Amino acid sequence: MIIITQPVSSPTTPINPVQKFEDFYRFYEDSPGEYKYQEQIKNIDAKGGNSLVFLYEDLLSYDPKLAEMLKKDPERLLDDAVEAFKNTLKFLSGGKLSYEDYFVRISTLDEKSTLGIPIRGLRSKHIDQLVWLKGITIRSSTIRPRLTKAT
């Protein structure tokens, strides 16, 4: 008897991002036999946390297509990543969730990552894309619109 643990995708089947993220959380191996995010989610459940942080490079090495989709449309795919995190947490904890809100954060270790952009290089083409910036916040203020009334 053969048991398949990962879905086999065909070119005509559309990608289900929630399932892809669940597979990433459950099957990504940092080293042979060590499931990095599965262990991290178990620790989050044991400590009563509600936030998962994963490395973009890990996702890129596991599923480059999903990583590229995340880079191009982070708003939609972050919601899918949170849903997959909740599903995986339910699976690993026996079906109970402690919080209403759960969060997924993306980080990078490589300063030369494809997400990295110098602050001065930030342009309008980066709107609605996932970017990584390095800097220090010195001051923040409210955004005041220039246009107040138009017809």
Structure write-up:
By secondary structure, the protein is α+β, with helices and mostly antiparallel strands. The protein has five helices and four strands. It has helices at 17-27, 36-47, 56-62, 64-72, 74-93, and strands spanning 29-31, 34-35, 51-55, 103-107. It has a two-stranded antiparallel ribbon. The chain has a two-stranded parallel sheet with strand order 3-4. β1 (29-31) and β2 form a beta hairpin. The chain is globular, with a radius of gyration of 19 Å. The chain starts with 16 loop residues before the first helix and ends in a 44-residue tail after the last strand.
| Coarse shape | globular
Mean pLDDT: 84
Largest sheet, spatial ordering of strands: 1-2
Range of helix content: 25-40%
Number of strands: 4
Number of helices: 5
CA(first)-CA(last) distance: 70 Å
Beta-strand percentage range:
5-15%
H and E string: HEEHEHHHE
As a whole number of angstroms, the C-alpha radius of gyration is 19 Å
Give the low-pLDDT segments.
none
- Going by helix content, strand content and strand pairing, the class is alpha+beta
Major sheet description: 2 strands, antiparallel
